[in-house]
Design goal:
The protein is of the alpha/beta class. Helices cover 32% and strands 20% of the residues.
Length: 319
């Protein structure tokens, strides 16, 4: 299949790797692409970090955390206003008569439910992502977000008159009525996506033009990934796209419990994903139009400066 890449991406092929994957190269100094200079740079950086930069590093993290908390306070206040408008029927989100049929309403064994971190903190919003997807399909769409956390992306799609559904493995946000769970309760659900589930409206399976999973798949145990892929394929429209980002570094909860349960290289991930889906043609994203992995928020990693993840575009396998 002919793949067209953004100018900010580099087309890369590895030995014994037939598929093409995306490496973000935007804003990376050219000298770092030279292996020798890159190695020297890392050695110097590590030396400075260990010996002189710990206080600076800690100060920067404290500032980022302070700004993050201010951002969350602002978002809570705005969502309180949204909730009042919904409650007083100044804004009306129609009951979609949606159900999620599953025997596993919560991912009880998931470390992310037992030690809620992402679902507790994440408030991702990205209207630019919605506009890009709508422009690609040239219509309003059906959108599904797996690992939706606060439900912010689902809200962004609904706000622009799309049909949106979010599924989260933990019930933390639902129980605490955090963020958008109290504003669009008929569109956000809990379910274990490593088990079979079906989203239905008026007893018919709903198909989605766009299914996303940003910073989710690495949180799934390797043995459970196949069922996740089957769930995505079952709900993906024939002309739909499966898009998202995957972290490639280890991550831990504050108590030391591992949160990233499948830590693979981009090559290995793409080899796996393309067993179930085809690589999709590039839909001309600019880097900042991705909701995650772009520094979208003070605590979101930026893959341009911290290459600990990558983005993917997939579509239904051609029969």
């Amino acid at each position: 299949m002919n793949i067209q890449f953004n100018k900010s991406y580099e087309k890369v092929k590895k030995k014994n790797f037939k598929n093409i994957f995306f490496y973000q190269t935007e804003k990376i100094p050219s000298f770092l692409k030279n292996k020798f200079f890159k190695k020297i740079f890392i050695m110097i950086f590590n030396l400075l970090y260990r010996n002189k930069s710990q206080k600076l590093y800690n100060s920067i993290n404290e500032i980022k955390n302070y700004l993050f908390q201010l951002e969350k306070k602002r978002d809570r206040e705005i969502n309180d206003l949204r909730f009042l408008l919904v409650k007083n029927k100044k804004i009306n989100y129609e009951d979609q008569n949606l159900v999620v049929e599953t025997s596993f309403q919560v991912a009880n064994e998931s470390p992310d439910h037992i030690n809620p971190t992402g679902t507790k903190e994440d408030d991702t919003r990205c209207p630019a992502f919605v506009s890009k997807i709508n422009n690609f399909f040239k219509k309003k769409i059906n959108y599904l977000d797996l690992g939706c956390a606060s439900g912010g992306l689902v809200y962004d799609f609904i706000e622009k008159d799309n049909f949106g559904v979010g599924i989260e493995g933990s019930d933390f946000s639902k129980i605490s009525q955090r963020s958008f769970w109290k504003i669009i309760p008929n569109n956000l659900f809990t379910a274990d996506i490593t088990k079979k589930f079906e989203i239905k409206k008026e007893d018919k399976l709903v198909k989605f033009d766009c299914i996303s999973s940003f910073e989710v798949l690495e949180h799934i145990e390797t043995k459970d990934l196949d069922q996740v892929m089957l769930n995505v394929d079952r709900h993906l429209a024939q002309s739909g796209i499966f898009i998202g980002s995957i972290g490639t570094a280890k991550s831990f909860a504050s108590n030391g419990v591992p949160l990233h349960l499948t830590v693979w290289s981009p090559e290995k991930w793409l080899n796996y994903l393309t067993k179930y889906f085809d690589l999709s043609e590039d839909i001309n994203f600019t880097f900042d139009e991705f909701p995650r992995g772009t520094g979208n928020g003070y605590m979101d990693p930026d893959f341009r400066t911290s290459p600990i993840g990558f983005h993917y575009f997939l579509k239904k396998k051609m029969s």
